[in-house]
Amino acid sequence: MTAQVPVIAIDGPTGSGKGTVSRGLARRLNWHLLDSGALYRLVALAARRRGVSLEDAAGLVSVAETMAVEFSAAGDEEQIMLESQDVTLALRTEDAGMDASQVGAVPEVRAALLERQRGFARAPGLIADGRDMGSVVFPESTLKVFLTAAPEERAERRYKQLREKGIDVSLATLSREIVERDQRDANRSIAPLRPAADARVLDSTGLTAEQVIETVLRWVDEAGLTAGS
Ligand code: C5P
């Protein structure tokens, strides 16, 4: 059961700062981290590598159930392995994000990933980063945060992030893709991107990641989540 392990759900659209904030929180609290977007990206990548069509729901479920993935982190460097191959960079491209958004709209894929995601909840606690962490995967989370930011700022953040990783991309293309991905994520019939009823919405426009982390840590204190740890 995951109920005893405290979970902080950090949901929001692309470029809202979820990833940076979640990693920062996990480090500050010394909790585990679930990057659920990476799982959707991995299903799509593994499917492509196995020659499974992204339209083939049964094939995607089989990939989601059988793919061997490993997450590790050394300091600031994350590493993601798929079937013993380092796919850390391949996963971060916008193409991988668009593919993930396509497989994420398939209900059977979401169901297949549910238990895998819940398995990340281990003591002393979990920071769960995604789109439906507070609404579907961990509805019992003690703290649910929904991060937003103005679309232009989200596109700029993604642009900087990708350039820093050496991934070539134009800001105009990125802005278009972000809008497209947001629309698909927000309008899909299953687990659409929207705040859980009991989520605290935080608009990070104009704020640094550190300021957002400080705000969430205040909420963590208020919720009594770290008492005794
Ligand atoms: O967060 P990230 O950009 O890595 O997510 C990639 C895509 O995976 C999202 O655009 C979304 O379609 C999908 N996703 C999802 N549910 C999650 C996390 C990601 O549907 N919990």
Please provide a brief summary of the model:
This protein is of the alpha/beta class.
Write a structural description.
Helix content is about 50%, strand content about 15%. The chain has about 230 residues and is an alpha/beta fold. It has one domain: Rossmann fold (3-Layer(aba) Sandwich), CATH 3.40.50.300. The strands form 2 sheets. A 5-stranded parallel beta sheet has the order 2-6-1-7-8. Strands 3-4-5 form a 3-stranded antiparallel beta sheet, with no helix packed on it. Helix 2 crosses helix 3 (about 55-65), helix 3 (about 55-65) runs parallel beside helix 6 (about 105-120) and helix 8 (about 150-165) crosses helix 9 (about 170-185). The structure holds cytidine-5'-monophosphate (C5P). Cytidine-5'-monophosphate binds near residues 101 and 130.
